[in-house]
Every structure is written in structure tokens, then in C-alpha cells.
Amino acid sequence: MGTLSVNILFSSLEEEGGVPKKGVAMVSKSHCKHLKVIKGEFLKEAWLACAPLLFDDFGNKDKIIQRIKDTPLSRNTIKERILKLAKNVTDQQKIDINSAPFISLCLDESTDVTKSARLAVFARYCVGNVIKEELIAISSLLTTTKGTAICTAVKNSLAEKEIDLKKIVSVTTDGAPSMVGKKNGFISLFQTDVGHSILEFHCIIHQQALCAKSGLTSLYNVMAVVTKIVNLISSQALNKRKFDALLDEVNSVYNGLLMYNNVRWLSCGNVLQRFVDFLEDIRLFLLLNNTHSCWMLCGFQN
């Protein structure tokens, strides 16, 4: 949330009900920032419990305590303020995007843990001399993930933000056929709706992933060994408890290994780094448990 947006919102709150309502807005903002909800009445009770000690040497201690008592922190009040904050952010985003002369989009379609297809739409644009990159929408693709479905979802998301399609000058995708297909790909269909040619870019991170899969074939054997050992320790409840106990004994700074799968390919580096950090602990664990994977690990070290 921008500073200007916050100041405008807080000014309106002061006009509505003064400092107590501004305090509610600050509490609501903290809830949104940390993605955690704390019962408002519990928070007020905690404030009142410690206020006499914290403000004991303040001349206006009674006024401070009364302010805390006057601050409404019920569940409905917090919900109302969070909705106001969300609306304010959305309105400010609309103003900034529509004031930009040109807009660049970035799309990423993926399947989440519930096996639902999600499409993330990002926009990059200039506000004055500042370049901003904001999430426009996360849409659900209810049926197919073809270019037509993606094009419809993108157009609906842009319409909700009241974005002029003529301002779109470039689109970055993951290079999938549904995105870059010559006839029914998103780029081709979207250009027809926009009415002018669009610069097409392939996401550099996806390019790196493709290069890693096709060029670094020597890592396949390494990842196969690492994945097998990590699964042996982390997937079996007994082994995981024994390994956790071993980590406690050696006062490890980590609480366990990281698991890897092909979908979350960006985690490959983190998995390997954690494995290397735990290499001696893993070797000791496998030796103590007389596990066949110990010989595999010894070969890996050599």
C-alpha cells in the first residue's frame, strides 16, 4: 500500500471518528500485512493490562487508557476496516494503471495443490518516473487451459480494472503452446482483440529451467540419489523422528530436510544446498540405522 494511499485513507478516518478509528485502521493493516487474525477484544485486554505499567510516568496516563478503551476492535469492525483498506488499494491501483501511457503484462498459468488451474496476471507500468509491477488478478480457469480460455480470463481481469487494451504493448509468458500457439495461442487471440501488434517475450526464469533440463543432464543422477535419500528420511514417520532427534543432539540450525518435486523446479537449488549442509549428519544417520542408502551416499561423496 502506497504512502499517499494510506495518508488519504487515514485522513478520511479522522474525519469520520478521530483517533480511535485511525487506530482500528492500523490494527487492520497489521492483520493484512502478517496474514494473521488476532481477536480484537483479546488485544484490547492485553493493552489495558500493561498500559498502567508502561505509561505510569506519563502525565496523561488516564487519557491514554481511555483511548484504548474507546478503540472499537470487534470482529465486524476489523473486517469492515480490512475491506476499506482493500478497496482503497484497488482504487489507487486503478488510478495509477490508467494514468500510465503504456502497459506490459506478464502471465503465468499453473495448477495448485487442489488440482485447480490458476492464472496470475501481472502488469508493469510507469507512474511518473517510477516503474511499478503489480498483481492485477489471480483467475481460476474452470474448464480448459487453452488459449481461448486464457484470453477470456485476461480480458475479464483487465475489464475489472478498467484498463484500456490499446495501452498493452508487450506480454511475457512461459512459452507454453497455449500461450504462443500460432493460431489458437493466447498471444495470437489477444492481438486480434487489441487491434495492434504486441511484443512477445519468453520468461527468462522458464528459459533457465528449460536449459537446466536439457543441458545439465549430469545432474539427473545427483538429484536421483538426493531425492531417494531425502524421501527415505522425510517420508517415513519413524525415520523422520529419528533424524529430528539427531539434529537436536548436534544443535542443528535447521529443523529438517527439504523435499523436491519436478513441479516446483525452482526449489532444486535449495534442496541441494540443505542436503550439502546436512551431509555429515545424513551419513551418520544412515550408518546408525544400517541403511542400504549409506553405500549410495558414499558413492555420491566420492
Automatic annotation (TrEMBL):
Protein name (Swiss-Prot/TrEMBL): General transcription factor II-I repeat domain-containing protein 2A
Native organism: Araneus ventricosus (Orbweaver spider)
